[in-house]
């Protein structure tokens, strides 16, 4: 059957395991083909190019944005990418060819970036558009590097492998991303070919402009939407589990097994992404099932995400959350009975491009929870101008998720589990469909809360 598969950066860095556990596992001859692999950059490379995804530490992009010299960082990048190349020599990578490819590629990118920097320095054009183009160029380097190396290794293993480079580096045609994908696959005989595809895809709309660091999953989703495979698969370095094994211990959690796209969205909302929410929508709408697999456990079926799945018995499927949130409480005694206070607050959030993950209201106050990284002083100033008192507090959120968990006593059972561990609930909530029960607590009690809830739900 035709499959479209995605390999994440951490898995890509373990190419030997990827080849053994994904490419070759229980497959020979023609079974190797009719598969499309969308690959991320090797682990850490995009962080060097743009910024560290977790810490925010600046990469090459930020030197361009600050009008600083970026030539030395690019030369250092070439050295680092060649060091990565050496790791795969034993797998059959042609080092001379791979080193020459990445050197030529980065040097060409440098020419494009020099032109952008000169235009930016002139002050005649929009800074935002130029910097966005710089991010696109830099992002493309990582996936072009990993896809080239992977293809070279597989070809040297005598596997009929096609490199599908969607970066459009030397292609000046004004394709949308969908048009580029359609053009790239039009002459490939999929039943006799294994395709390695760059996770970055160039398009007139700018994939990073809309999706930023989630772009490789969007490329994966768009390819699946075009080719309509029997199944879409994401290979990660871990299972989609009932709780984070790093918090509760591997022995205290299991792979989820089955869930639906609604739960996948709930997971993404608290940062535990099975798939980027904007990438999951085309799959969901098209009725394409998504499987999340562990690269290092190839015989395990993983977790299947479908549009229709509802668990046949009542249970909590996932316990998750995050400790990187802020609660903004807006108080004003004139709110009670006043139509439009909520709208006024939401308009301020919209104007400052800040999204929220939780909201609770009372007669004279509205509490809104946002990601700490999205804190905006101008937003707070606006709220303080319009309302009597604005309070900001660090919080954590723990969640119970499930496709069929609406049962009497669940809320009391979970609240009691927190209470028995001396964890104070600052706020709580759930929508009518009851697929996500949320508790807000102090950040320092986050790990304890996850452990307590996981134990209580067994």
Give structural notes.
It is a single chain. The protein is of the alpha/beta class and 458 residues long. It is 42% helix and 18% strand. An 8-stranded mixed sheet has the order 3-4-2-1-5-7-8-6, sandwiched between helices. A 6-stranded antiparallel sheet has the order 10-11-9-12-14-13. Helix 10 packs parallel to helix 13. The chain folds into 2 domains: 3-237, Carbamate kinase; 318-457, 2-Layer Sandwich (VC0802-like). A hairpin with a 6-residue loop joins strand 13 (427-429) and strand 14 (436-441). The protein is built from 17 helices and 14 strands. The chain is globular, with a radius of gyration of 24 Å.
List the helices and strands and how they pair.
Elements: E1 3-7, H1 9-12, H2 15-23, E2 35-39, H3 45-49, H4 60-65, H5 71-87, H6 95-122, H7 127-156, E3 161-164, H8 177-185, E4 194-198, H9 207-211, H10 215-227, E5 231-236, H11 245-248, E6 258-260, H12 261-269, H13 277-286, E7 290-294, E8 303-306, E9 318-331, H14 341-351, E10 358-361, E11 365-371, H15 377-386, E12 389-401, H16 410-420, E13 427-429, E14 436-441, H17 446-456
Parallel strand pairs: 1-2, 1-5, 2-4, 3-4, 5-7, 6-8
Antiparallel strand pairs: 7-8, 9-11, 9-12, 10-11, 12-14, 13-14
Helix pairs in contact: 5-6, 6-7, 8-10, 10-13, 12-13, 16-17
Radius of gyration: 24 Å
CATH A-level architecture of the largest domain:
3-Layer(aba) Sandwich
User: Strand order, biggest sheet?
Assistant: 3-4-2-1-5-7-8-6
The CATH superfamily label of the largest domain reads Acetylglutamate kinase-like
Largest sheet data? 8 strands, mixed
Shape: globular
| Helical/strand content category | alpha/beta
Q: List low-pLDDT spans.
A: none
And the CATH topology of the largest domain?
Carbamate kinase
Strand content: 15-25%
Q: State the assembly state of the protein chains.
A: single chain
